[in-house]
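Board notes (copied after class):
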Amino acid sequence: MTAPDPHARPLSQVVRDLSSSEAQSMSLGEVVDALGASALAGLILVFGLACALPLPPGATTVFGLPLVLLSPQLLFDQARPWLPRRLRERRMSMADLRGAFQRMTPWLTRMEALSRPRLGFVVGVQGRRLIGLICTVFALVLILPIPLGNMLPATAVSVLSLALIQRDGAIAMAGYVLAAASVGVLVLAANLVGAVIKTGLSMLLPA
């Protein structure tokens, strides 16, 4: 597959083209190459959106695993995305990919229409590293089987990566708000689970 120039077309168009592929399956490496060798933030956006969509159980683990490897590369200011050969060669059903790509395309189009270069200092080198740190932490959350617990962190990852692509500091600040809300929800959920477990043990075990 010939890798298109990510600067020549918006990411939404690249994803739309991927969804129209007639192949029976596609490797993760082919998706990476199609998005462009320098589109690290674009890859994080695509996999983040995939995790935010209502997909079959286990899908967030599949799409979240590349995020675990890609997000730290933002943190260390890596210019070119890297994935191990085994992961690059992992093939996915085109039926599943097509559904995910078709669902995310309208969202990408809307997000691109609302964003523009502004407040560049927010998405500079230090901002890029901060976003990389946040995305790395949330990527570790996304690979966990948490029912309905992945949508908000995945949305935060998507918004923050879009901010890097569009050089939009205002979008980045919105992403930080979503990230803070995600942490709050995850802490609340952890406390609730802990309380339920504690209550269950107290009922089963004698005082």
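Comment from the instructor: The chain has nine helices and two strands. The chain has a mean pLDDT of 80.
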